[in-house]
Amino acid sequence: MKIVLMGYMGSGKSYYAQLLAKELGFKYLDLDIEIEKKAGKSISAIFSSRGEIFFRKLENQLLDELLKTQDNFVLALGGGTPCYGNNLELIVNTPNLKSIYLKRDLSYLLYILWEEKNKRPMIAHLNKIEDLEDFIRKHLFERQYYYRQAHFSLNPTKDANETLNAIRQLLH
């Protein structure tokens, strides 16, 4: 079985993918980490040197490769992954795959991303919290169509164990 977590940046995809993979005894994968390994440089460096189009092509190639493996895994996607190219189609059409949209509200995302903005190339240039809020609002509006095509949708709670229990219930 393959489990794919999708959602906006800062929604907890990597965090919950790690916890879930450990609990299930599955391999944990983070698509951004796999891209960095393949490219031999950070996501920020890829964006700076080659641009977003190159990044999205590499992202699509690696997603396709991972989904074709026979491995059991929990995969954390990048926030934009399901929204580009045929990535959503690859996810939807992969047998034995369950996708979960981790849905966070704007206030949570704004709080988390303001603290982490310098580590995230898509928002590092934003210097006012109001600009970040507008950026997130716009992206959430544009990306909802893709995120909502996940098999399941879940609003994580403050309690990680409670959220993991909810994910387990969705998968059974």
From TrEMBL:
Would you tell me the protein name for this molecule? Shikimate kinase
Q: What is its EC number?
A: 2.7.1.71
UniProt key word Nucleotide-binding: yes
Enumerate the catalysed reactions.
shikimate + ATP = 3-phosphoshikimate + ADP + H(+)
Q: List positions binding substrate.
A: 32, 56, 79, 143
- Which cell locations does it reside in? Cytoplasm
The protein's job, in short, is: Catalyzes the specific phosphorylation of the 3-hydroxyl group of shikimic acid using ATP as a cosubstrate.
Q: In which pathway does it act?
A: Metabolic intermediate biosynthesis; chorismate biosynthesis; chorismate from D-erythrose 4-phosphate and phosphoenolpyruvate: step 5/7
The primary site where this protein sits is cytoplasm
The entry's free-text remark on the cofactor is: Binds 1 Mg(2+) ion per subunit.
The family note in this entry says: Belongs to the shikimate kinase family.
State the UniProt keywords alphabetically. Answer: Amino-acid biosynthesis, Aromatic amino acid biosynthesis, ATP-binding, Cytoplasm, Kinase, Magnesium, Metal-binding, Nucleotide-binding, Transferase
Q: Which domain of life is it from?
A: Bacteria
Gene that encodes it = aroK
